[in-house]
Amino acid sequence: MAEYSPPDGRAKPEGKAGGNKQGKSAHRRDAKQGRTRAPGTNGAESPAQVPTPASNWRRPPHKSYKQSYAAIDLGTNNCRLLIARPAGENFVVIDAFSRVVRLGEGLAQTGRLSDKAMERGLGALKICADKLKKRNVHLARSVATEACRRASNGAAFIERVRQETGIVLDIISAQEEARLAVLGCHILLEDGRGPAVIFDIGGGSTELVLIEPGAPVPRIIDWQSVPWGVVSLSETVGHEGGDEAARLARYAEMKRLVRESFAEFAKRIAPHQAEDQRLLGTSGTVTTLASVHLGLVQYDRREVDGLIVRSDDMLAVSERLSAMSPEQRGDIGCIGKERAELVVAGCAILEAILEIWPAPRLGVADRGIREGILRSLMAADAEGMQTQAALRRDRAENVR
Fold first, then answer.
1. CATH number for the domain harbouring residue 314
2. Which of 10, 214, 265, 289 is the most buried (most CB within 10 A)?
3. 0.85 exceeded by the pTM?
4. Are 282 and 198 in contact (CB under 8 A)?
5. Which of 184, 198, 188 is nearest to 28 (CA)?
6. Is 244 found in the same domain as 108?
7. pLDDT, tens digit (0-9, with 9 covering 90-100), for 108-129
8. Average pLDDT of span 294-311
9. Is residue 101 located within the same domain as residue 141?
10. In whole angstroms, how far apart are CA 254 and each of 104, 302, 355?
11. Residues 327 and 380 in one domain
12. 362 and 261 share one domain
């Protein structure tokens, strides 16, 4: 089922064609449950519902809208694929795949990717390779993040993937990971003045990025990556056990580790803080906590992507989950047994982030690195086509 990505831009002011009927309001309310959503988003996205993009930027036209582009993100916990075609300033998703592979399982103790973890990763990537062939992908970029950066056998695994699947994975830096995450989700940021923070809680690392918003790409003022994600943090503090007091003590230790790792960054960005500062998160953690907040029986991207929640409400969810046993969390439909233990580490990281950048509201994005890759690929390809067309025109004029 095709899915539309919102454009790089904001809705036009009230009274103009294709504009936002709510005028200058920074968000809109879902009439059913009073939920707040970022501008330019809605429940089920479709061509008619995509707002008119900002008039100060237009992506060059593509040679063929039948060409498909792909992005693969092999993280510490998940392997994700997105295949899309350009659609004006947006793109249409024509295929997607996601699987929990736990590539970084045991990495904190051994410094290596385990045989079982690599087999799980390879199994998912073989499915991705089949989809790339089936969809006749024109351009693709495949990246690997923290697990492969840290593992002593990360490069060997990348070569094995190339030989067995044909997929060439690029182990990207933490800085590039942060840039792609921002590029993929910044359009969901609330309207407002001054810098904002975007964060990405992954399986093996967390990135915090201070940006100056603007289309088509926001300016990155400062950023920091720490090696604490839901997998690495969980494994470092050890598995849960004991009573509620023991669970809360473990949770406090998680927050301490994250807080200390971000201490220098917190000092650097403190001068940028304001009364109504903005915060946007992309990760399985924030989408899961948003689902719990909404009381969803199972995860629904249409309900979550673009949602804006009061920070106090998200903190309340985090505190409630941290006191529960893994079994109790596993019984919550939108969490499930697979995330029951890892979600606690995500809660601890989120609480630490809200201490560093205490925004009154939190934006939730179910998009990030893959979308950032796709936008980069399409923009670069279109620019290349435009350059080639200009060269052809120059040659024709010289011949005359």
1. 3.30.420.150
2. 289
3. no
4. yes
5. 188
6. no
7. 999 999 999 999 999 999 999 9
8. 95
9. yes
10. 18, 31, 14
11. no
12. yes
Strands (DSSP E) contained in 62-119 are 68-74, 78-87, 90-100
Show the tokens assigned to 23.
Answer: 């005028």
- The number of beta carbons lying within 10 Å of the beta carbon of residue 394 is 10
**54 within domain boundaries:** no
To which residue do tokens 């990505």 refer? 5
Cα 175 from Cα 291, distance rounded (Å):
29
**Total structural domains within the chain:** 2
CATH number at residue 125: 3.30.420.40
Instruction: Let me know: does 23 contact 14? Beta carbons within 8 Å.
Output: yes
130 with 261, same domain: the answer is no
pLDDT at position 18 is 35
Domain interval for residue 313? 190-367
75 DSSP 8-state letter: -
Same domain, 167 and 200: no
Give the DSSP letter string of 202-270: -SS-EEEEEEE--SSSPEEEEEEEES--HHHHHHHH----SSHHHHHHHHHHHHHHHHHHTHHHHHHHG
- In terms of Cα–Cα distance, which of 6, 168, 2 is closest to 85? 2
Cα distances (angstroms) measured from residue 361 to each of 99, 123, 133, 273, 313: 30, 39, 42, 14, 9
At 342-369, the pLDDT tens digits run 999 999 999 999 999 999 999 999 999 9
Structural element, H or E, at residue 201: strand 196-201
